[in-house]
Structure formats: C-alpha cells, structure tokens
Amino acid sequence: MATAWLAIHIGGIFFWKWTPAGILPAAVLILIQAWLSTGLFIVAHDAMHGSLAPGRPRLNRLVGTVALGMYAGLSYRRLEPKHHLHHRHVGTADDPDFSADHPRSAPRWFLSFFGTYYTHAQIGRITIVAIAYMLLGASLLNIAIFWALPALTALLQLFFFGTYLPHRHDEEPFADKHRARSTRVGPILSLLTCYHFGGYHHEHHLSPGTPWWALPAFRRSRAPASVRS
C-alpha cells in the first residue's frame, strides 16, 4: 500500500506532464491515490488499537506516525487519544467524531469533524513539505492534484462511509451501547469504500482489536452455524 502510494505521489508530483490525453489517466490515478490515502489512515487506525503489530507498541506508534504523515501531515500523538475517546463515548457529546448538535446532517457534521482533526500545525507541516517539493522542481499544481486532492477525497470517504453512515441518527435504532451500525454492502464494496469500516463498523466496535482485513471473518465467526453453512 505505502509503496503504491509513494509511486503515485512521487511520479505525479515530480514527473507528470499535463497533456489533453493525460487528463483521464490522471483522474484514474487520483481516485486510486484517494483510496490508498484512506488505507494509510486505516493502517494508522489499526496501530492505535495495537492490531497492526500486536504486542509491539513502539512499532505501532512508528508505523502509525509515518502513515498519517504521508497521508496529510496529521499527528498520530494527537489523534490516538481522540480515537480512544470516540470508542469510550461513542455517539455522545464527548465523542470527538460525533456531532451531537447535528446527528443527522452530513454537511454540518462534516464541518465539525474537519475542525476536530485538521490543525494549523498540520497545515504548517504540509506547507513546509510543499515548499521543499517546489524547491526540488515540482509545480504547485501537481502538488495540489496528486497530494491535496486525494487527501481531501479520502477525508470525505473516511467521514461519510466510516463515521457518518455508521453513527448517524435515523429511524432505525442502534443495536446496542456501541451506537454503531454496519452499512448493508457486500465485502468488495465495503473494501472499496472504506476498508471494511463502513460495511463492518459495528463489528469493529464489538472487537476494536480486530484488524480491518479480518472484520469479515469476525462477522462470520459470530453468525449462527446454520448461517455460516
């Protein structure tokens, strides 16, 4: 995942030459990079739960820090305690991922979500890297297209499929105290939308230590024998 992300990141920022024929391939690369950027966040998320490298907290912190830095200059040290607050107070005013004032409005909830996780320090880190890239010959347009745009697209993906749909308030009550629901999509679409954190979000709250790729198997293990067969 990281290798593919770096290949598109470096190739797009430093070597992409814009031509009319290259617009469609660039759009495809941006979509792929957005999905890979979502994956970097999910890797860091698993590191926060210790499931990336079980029993090795330093390695989890290191990989999580690098993954969030690559994705969008985010701070692992700042995000980790906020994510654990989300699990302890899910769906309440004390949940940093939740908008108690707008539990059904995606646009208003997103503004709150954005404000929680994006800081001046993060923007400063991105600016420093962007300046360094331009000093090495990259254009600001390529930086915006192949780094900023995929990162923002991934943010929308993480919010909509991994936060809003699983935790929004609607007519269907939540199943339990976790105040989370899994969206009703198949495994492939679940993978493509948010690395199973939409299609299997309730399962994640039931077992936070289960890595993203094992969530479908966790659901199958909980199903009655008649259903599994």
TrEMBL record:
Range of residues in the leader sequence: none
Sequence ranges assigned to domain Fatty acid desaturase in this UniProt record: 25-120, 123-220
Domain of life: Bacteria
Biological process annotations from GO: lipid metabolic process
Pfam assignment, any one: FA_desaturase
Transmembrane intervals: 23-47, 59-76
Full protein name: Beta-carotene ketolase
Organism: Sphingomonas lenta
